[in-house]
Design goal:
Number of domains: 1
Structural class: alpha/beta
CATH architecture: 3-Layer(aba) Sandwich
Strand content: 15-25%
Low-confidence stretches: 1-8
Strand order of the largest sheet: 3-2-1-4-5-6-7-8
CATH class: Alpha Beta
CATH superfamily: NAD(P)-binding Rossmann-like Domain
Largest sheet: 8 strands, mixed
Distance between the termini: 47 Å
């Protein structure tokens, strides 16, 4: 895979699923930073600008997930995120999924439990900005979930926002 941003040999491959305004901003940051980036969206035309910048289009969610070790999903609602991820089948096993979809803590925990059953490492995140703010040093992104995943991909995830970090060992605020 080639990008317009130079050497990608030392950068983790990233898949971005969901190319609305936020997902497109996320994928753009990874591309601009030289990460080999694969994209998928249910409406393929939404990928055109990113493909023109060097992203690889995946025809299916399964192909997108199989393209690399780190999968970022940003869609409308956790139910949609789970349905989309389910379509990847066993390709999810051994991958790290970072779900940047908004929703309730209970929904985040449910997706995290389901992901664990698939053999997937999982983080849930909350982006504290609008799409044009993604990638700025003052942007805050909070994560909850597997500390090992956060540690492994910390430098990649920090591209999305220079502030924030892992704030909880689980996805969502624990139920009281």
């Amino acid at each position: 895979m080639t990008t317009t941003s130079g050497n990608t040999s030392t950068r983790s491959a990233v898949t971005v699923i969901g190319l609305g305004e936020m997902g497109s901003a996320l994928a753009g940051v990874f591309l601009d930073s030289g990460h080999p980036t694969t994209v998928w969206n249910r409406t393929p035309g939404k990928a055109d600008a990113l493909v023109a910048k060097g992203a690889r289009w995946a025809a299916t969610v399964r192909d997108a997930v199989a393209a690399g070790p780190l999968v970022i999903i940003s869609v409308k609602g956790n139910a949609a995120a789970r349905r989309i991820l389910e379509s990847a089948g066993d390709a999810l096993a051994g991958r790290a999924v970072v779900n940047l979809t908004d929703g309730t803590s209970a929904e985040a925990r449910a997706v995290a439990e389901w992901a664990a059953d698939q053999g997937t490492e999982y983080l849930h995140g909350q982006i504290m900005t609008i799409a044009p703010g993604v990638g700025h040093p003052e942007t805050v992104v909070f994560y909850g979930g597997a500390g090992a995943v956060y540690d492994r991909y910390r430098s990649t995830l920090r591209l999305l926002g220079g502030r924030g970090g892992l704030i909880a060992a689980g996805a969502g605020i624990p139920a009281l």
